[in-house]
């Protein structure tokens, strides 16, 4: 819990700032759309926060390996302990973000409805549809985070040339999630496979990716920074 | 904390940085680790601190294998010459993190050391000079109060005043909170008085591990007429020699009996001790086989 709690403490202010920026952009975006285009045909919140839900964990995954592993080991935490805490933190963070994006969609839908700015194609939020929305958003977020970790691990553990080559297998979780479980700004989902099967496959790739990360990083030397 | 190192080898590709090293370090002492650039000091320390997995061999700390051992990791602090922080980190954040993760962290002592070294904790790492970075490393290393503290060339960039403060604080804190400290350095004579034992590495091997006082008397310089010096040195390990005209000076490894000194002096020879730095220079400037 020490690693989890410490990472949560480190990322809390960053998340709050990021959240405030997203809210400000959403507010500005809705005002601009409302005054120029008229009733919205899509969820601006899902465009923006949905993208943030993927790319923020991707960047966080990169930073967690490239910066924080070293910090924790230098303070008496083993790699194994760090990676265990990192897994817990990753699940909690992406679940929180997916919940916030789902709830934010609800607020946006409510607000646009009240202002009569919901276009006919707008994906109206419903409480009964919320679990499915959350269930489509969360795996994607987790997959992006694991991809960020895996890609960085390739560069951290091996030399840059091998790191470049390992970007491709590192991106597998991301690619699988994008092609199996997706929820877009029009409320569309991908139905290549039944949701249960798609979810199981995506989670299997995510867990597999993390196990590969664990295997690669458990023996990695702690690199120096430039002096 | 006692350290046992068995057949430790650290390789980087084809380069052997540490070559089958075996060492027993008793707990509660200050060790000086000396060696030329590239001799394997940092690689050895990295293996002891589990920053790097040994290519072969094992490091046991208090009888437990050190690598990826949480009990050992909690009680070990390794400060490298390059700080393990990001340039954008504020020093206060680094101190907070250490306080949160280190069970033995002493925050008042850390604050005191910041005052001693005149470091503003509100600064970012990138705003520190080379000497201030080193001093901050010393703050992190000493305030962690871990039973095993490893400082790898922690004086780099420090001016004479800062180095003196560092040595003073290190000794004072060690006397108040005895623990195992390993200090690697090139400034041998400056810190030799701190060391209880000295380890000298050369080309990946430990060539000397002895009490500091024993090392001081380990070598002897013999100067005198060429023939007399040559006769005296016969059968002994010569660490170095100089000849000027008919006068020869040799540095001999090992103790010389008082009786031999008396006979030597009667033959016109003069004897002098060599310092640890001289011994280090002699030992590490010889071909490997001669230095063993």
Automatic annotation (TrEMBL), chain A:
> Any transmembrane segments, and where?
14-35, 55-73, 85-107, 137-156, 161-181, 193-214
Keywords, A to Z, come to:
Membrane, Transmembrane, Transmembrane helix
KW Transmembrane helix (keyword) present? yes
Protein name (database record): Uncharacterized protein
Domain of life of the native organism: Bacteria
TrEMBL record, chain B:
Looking at the record's lineage, which domain of life comes first? Bacteria
State the UniProt keywords alphabetically. ATP-binding, Nucleotide-binding
Q: Which residues form the ABC transporter domain?
A: 3-228
CDD domains per the UniProt record, alphabetical: ABC_DR_subfamily_A
For this protein, the record's InterPro entries field holds: AAA+_ATPase (IPR003593), ABC_transporter-like_ATP-bd (IPR003439), P-loop_NTPase (IPR027417)
State what protein this is by name.
ABC transporter
User: What organism does the UniProt record list as the source?
Assistant: Paractinoplanes deccanensis
């Amino acid at each position: 819990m020490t690693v989890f709690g410490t990472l949560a403490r480190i990322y809390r202010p960053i998340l709050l700032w990021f959240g405030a920026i997203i809210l400000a952009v959403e507010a500005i975006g809705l005002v601009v759309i409302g005054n120029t285009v008229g009733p919205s045909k899509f969820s601006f919140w899902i465009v923006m926060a949905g993208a943030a839900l993927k790319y923020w964990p991707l960047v966080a995954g990169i930073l967690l390996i490239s910066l924080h592993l070293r910090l924790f080991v230098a303070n008496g935490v083993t790699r194994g302990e760090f990676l265990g805490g990192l897994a817990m933190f990753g699940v909690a963070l992406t679940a929180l973000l997916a919940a916030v994006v789902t709830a934010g969609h609800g607020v946006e839908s409510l607000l646009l409805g009240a202002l009569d700015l919901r276009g006919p194609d707008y994906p109206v939020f419903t409480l009964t549809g919320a679990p499915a929305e959350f269930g489509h958003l969360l795996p994607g977020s987790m997959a992006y985070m694991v991809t960020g970790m895996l890609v960085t691990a390739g560069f951290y553990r091996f030399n840059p040339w091998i790191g470049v080559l390992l970007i491709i297998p590192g991106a597998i979780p991301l690619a699988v999630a994008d092609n199996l479980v997706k929820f877009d700004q029009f409320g569309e989902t991908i139905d290549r496979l039944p949701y249960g099967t798609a979810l199981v496959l995506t989670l299997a790739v995510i867990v597999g990716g993390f196990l590969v990360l664990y295997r690669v990083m458990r023996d990695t030397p702690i690199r120096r920074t430039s002096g | 904390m006692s350290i046992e190192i068995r057949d430790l080898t650290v390789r980087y590709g084809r380069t052997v940085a540490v070559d089958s090293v075996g060492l027993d370090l008793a707990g509660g002492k200050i060790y000086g680790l000396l060696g030329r650039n590239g001799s394997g000091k940092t690689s050895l320390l990295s293996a002891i601190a589990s920053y790097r997995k040994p290519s072969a061999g094992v490091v046991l700390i208090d009888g437990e294998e050190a690598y990826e051992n949480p009990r050992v990791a909690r009680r070990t602090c390794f400060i490298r010459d390059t700080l393990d922080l990001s340039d954008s980190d504020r020093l206060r954040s680094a101190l907070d993190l250490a306080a949160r993760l280190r069970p033995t962290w002493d925050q008042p002592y850390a604050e005191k050391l910041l005052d001693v070294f005149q470091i503003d904790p509100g600064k970012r790492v990138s705003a520190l000079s080379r000497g201030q970075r080193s001093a901050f490393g010393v703050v992190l290393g000493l305030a962690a109060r871990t039973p095993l503290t490893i400082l790898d060339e922690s004086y780099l960039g420090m001016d004479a005043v800062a180095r003196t403060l560092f040595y003073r604080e290190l000794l004072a804190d060690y006397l108040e909170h005895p623990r195992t400290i390993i200090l690697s350095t090139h400034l041998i004579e400056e810190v030799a008085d701190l060391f209880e034992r000295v380890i000298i590495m050369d080309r990946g091997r430990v060539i000397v591990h002895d009490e500091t006082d024993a090392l001081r008397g380990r070598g002897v310089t013999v100067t005198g007429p060429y023939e007399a010096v040559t006769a005296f040195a016969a059968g002994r390990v010569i660490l170095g020699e100089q000849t000027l005209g008919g006068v020869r000076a040799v540095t001999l490894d090992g103790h010389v009996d008082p009786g031999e000194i008396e006979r030597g002096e009667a033959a016109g020879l003069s004897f002098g001790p060599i310092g640890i730095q001289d011994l280090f220079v002699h030992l590490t400037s010889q071909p490997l086989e001669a230095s063993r």
